[in-house]
Amino acid sequence: MIVDTSKTNAQRFILAYNTIDQALRSIYNYKRSMTFSDMIRRTVPINSVIRKYEDKLIDYARLRNSIIHNSNDEFVIAEPHTDVVLLMEKIAEMITKPPKVIDIVAKKPVLTIEADVSVKDVISIIAKSGFKTLPVYENGKVLGLATPNRIVDWMGSKIESEENIEGILNDHQISQTLKESDLNSRFTICSENLTIQEALDLFYKNRLLSAVVITKTGSSYEKILGLITISDIMDLNKVLDDYE
Q1: Phi then psi dihedrals of residue 83, to 5 deg
Q2: How far is 205 from 195, CA to CA, in rounded Å?
Q3: According to the model, what pLDDT value does residue 4 have?
Q4: What pLDDT is attached to residue 199?
Q5: Are 37 and 17 in contact (CB under 8 A)?
Q6: Distance between CA atoms of 113 and 191, rounded to whole angstroms?
Q7: Residue 59: which of 23, 86, 94, 84 has the closest Cα?
Q8: What pLDDT was estimated at residue 154?
Q9: DSSP state, 182?
Q10: How many Å is the maximal CA-CA distance in the chain?
Q11: pLDDT of residue 195
Q12: What pTM did the predictor assign?
């Protein structure tokens, strides 16, 4: 973040405020008549950055109004503290230039498997590799995600049907444990342009979501570039906290 030290704190504060105001109106097509505070409240459910700083932004809206309406060229009624200015500039930067997941979090290795691998072999792979979420490919397409929870649920239904457990593990392919309904409900596929804010919003809106798969354009027929799971949420939030 580039800081213009030639400007006063009040000038920098107003500039950051206006940047946030204009960005929200542009991104979400808010009317010119809508107040800044109303925009913030309206944006909370759909933007993790605004959701995180909602109370501060509404407080700072009051500070902005006080500066604008009670100051003139020779007198500024309030000079914001430097910490306040830096936070507003940080929020403006995150809104206008949001960091991408693929550049920061999703660079960790991803282990994939083919759809015809047996359930028994997949359990062994999970145990030996330490990977808990394995994308499953069939004919070059991401079919779903093999996870311990999904496998246990599937095995439980088979046991309830009094099927032989050894036969279940050896005779069934991992593809048979997957459900088409899992796409978008349990996992979703996004492009490499996915931002951290957008990723957090996906998990926030869908509490059943366990993972987000990232490919070049968001197509299920592409190579997986990254994978983020619920366990990465803390890391995503930390990036926003440390973002400069």
Answers
A1: -60, -40
A2: 15
A3: 60
A4: 92
A5: no
A6: 21
A7: 84
A8: 86
A9: G
A10: 86
A11: 92
A12: 0.73
Question: Structure tokens of 137?
Answer: 């490919």
Calpha distance 173→118 (Å, rounded): 4
Residues of the chain with pLDDT under 50: none
- Read off the tokens for 140: 């070059």
Bridge partner list, 18? none
Q: Which one-letter amino acid corresponds to residue 109?
A: P
**What are the b/e assignments for 145-180, b being 16+ CB within 10 Å?**
bbbeebbeebbeebeeeeeeeeebbeebbbbebbee
Pull the structure tokens for residue 96: 């206008």
The CA distance from 133 to 214, in Å, is 14
Per-residue pLDDT of 176-225, as tens digits, reads 888 888 888 889 999 999 999 899 999 988 988 999 999 999 999 999 99
DSSP class per residue in 69-123: HS--SS--S----HHHHHHHHHHHHHHHSPPBHHHHTTTS----EETTSBHHHHH
Contact 33, 101 (CB under 8 A): no
